[in-house]
Amino acid sequence: MKEEQALRKEAEQIVQTVEAAGPFRQQFHLMPPAGLMNDPNGLVQWQGVYHVFYQWMPFHTGHGSKWWGHAATRDWIHWKLLPPALAPVHDFEKNGCYSGSAVVHGDLLYLFYTGNVKDEHGNRTSYQCLAVSSDGVEFEKHGPVIYQPEGYTAHVRDPKVWFEAGQWWLVIGAQRRDLEGQVLLYRSLDLWEWEFLGPLAGKDVTLAASFGYMWECPDFFELGGSRVLLISPQGLEAEVYQYQNQYQSGIFTGEFSPETGTFSHGSFHEMDLGFEFYAPQTFLDDQGRRLLIGWMGVPDQQEQAHPTIADGWVHCLTVPRELTMQNGHLYQQPIEEYRQLRGEHASAVVAVDDKTVVWHSWKAAVAEVHLEVEEDKSWTVSWRRYFHISYDAGAQTLTFERPDLVTGDPVRRTGRVTGVRSIRFLFDRSSAEVFVNDGEYVSTSRLFPEQEEGELQFSAEKPAVFHVDAWELQSLQWS
Ligand code: FRU
């Protein structure tokens, strides 16, 4: 193994040589300074500072021996890029410091992550590891605290830790030997010694049937009186209105008993209707908000066709979103702080009958757009002649269409949506996040349009009226 300092220097040099430019560089999303970004990791607020870590491959725009990149903010607008928190240098993590979480205990910040190891034959071993910091910048590694449990393959990873009922708890995503995805539960009194309690959810535990061959990136939290298990399962078959991406993310809602370590839950609900959303994680901030950030990517899904690879980087994170539970349904809304990014504002009433109407006065490509429309109308709204959102009021479906990243042919994602009253779009240079009915449904996608200007087009089957409000959005500030 290369010595840590040499490896860090090499990564720094790559960052300096990659010119952070290109038409698709984002303005208000976190992206890697160079290389590949995937899952958000270790989301935490500590001493007033929000820390966002992320899976990072500094050396090229593909996967491999991952690092933990690190950025921090007090207000979600002013950011500091910090030195990478974890680089894969030890034997127990030599093929990657994989995803995990952070907790604060006493005066220290604890990171839990998966040490990914492969031998010369490609055989994998996974260790759940601990690193501790007293300043939130440098982390001292203490190596594995959990080893591979009996009955599972080496696909055990992504520890999520929290405090509840007087002790520490940890869940990891797992694959049973017979290739069934599960989540495993552990507990500890001191964060160092962990007792394995068994599987928390999955086939033969809380489900009768198979539900994917691996569950990645679990999270387990209270929200509005319900218990939520968030997972990113792999291996679900595509259906007409769900599971249309290569892999998906979603939730089971139910009840957790800390006394018995058991969870009972209802059916799985996919969280996103778009093309790129995976591996989300949440945390509680000091205002009591449950905040979520996801990866705006999907593993193995047309990654090499992203045009940003020519500029030396690929992928980004979603905007932070506040979660709420309303009538048993998960809502996601961009955090309040993002309103500070709003600049120039315009509004219009757009009446559409049999022709497509272009809102000519709007040109900003980085924008927040709100639409209100009558609930019984079927319509299509297009952005930069590239991304088309269509509501079919009869079928109660919402469809998102963009060109296939490889062939250029139109491709769609369609979900069932019972009525659309309002839509809030967050458009960055190369993404769209769409929040329907105040966050009842969400769709997250990357966009790579040729047309640089923002342009909104409206069409409808029968006469319809759109009330439109739009703001140009400013960039995040980096230092
Ligand atoms: C999810 C994932 C995690 C793993 C990480 C590796 O995208 O596969 O399960 O820890 O990415 O980068």
Question: What tags apply to this protein structure?
Answer:
2 domains, binds beta-D-fructofuranose, six-stranded mixed β-sheet, 479 residues, Tachylectin-2, Chain A, 3% helix, six-stranded antiparallel β-sheet, Jelly Rolls, mainly beta, 53% strand
Outline the secondary-structure elements.
Elements: H1 4-17, E1 35-46, E2 49-57, E3 67-73, E4 78-86, E5 97-105, E6 108-118, E7 124-133, E8 140-146, E9 152-164, E10 167-176, E11 181-188, E12 195-202, E13 214-223, E14 226-234, E15 250-257, E16 262-265, E17 269-270, E18 278-284, E19 290-295, E20 313-314, E21 321-326, E22 329-334, E23 342-352, E24 357-358, E25 367-373, E26 379-383, E27 387-392, E28 397-403, E29 410-416, E30 422-428, E31 431-436, E32 441-446, E33 456-460, E34 464-473, E35 477-478
Parallel strand pairs: 1-20, 4-35
Antiparallel strand pairs: 1-2, 2-3, 3-4, 5-6, 6-7, 7-8, 9-10, 10-11, 11-12, 13-14, 14-15, 15-16, 15-17, 18-19, 19-21, 21-22, 23-34, 24-33, 25-30, 25-34, 26-27, 26-33, 27-28, 28-29, 30-31, 31-32
Report the strand count.
Answer: 35
Major beta sheet, specifics?
6 strands, mixed
In spatial order, strands of the major sheet run 20-1-2-3-4-35
CATH fold descriptor of the largest domain: Tachylectin-2, Chain A
Which kinds of small molecule does this entry bind, naming each only once?
A: beta-D-fructofuranose
What Rg is obtained from the alpha carbons, in whole angstroms?
Answer: 22 Å
Mean pLDDT: 96
CATH architecture assignment of the largest domain:
5 Propeller
Give the name of the CATH superfamily of the largest domain.
Glycosyl hydrolase domain, family 43
Envelope shape: globular
- Count of discrete structural domains: 2
User: Which class do the helix and strand fractions yield?
Assistant: mainly beta
Q: How many angstroms separate the termini? A: 32 Å
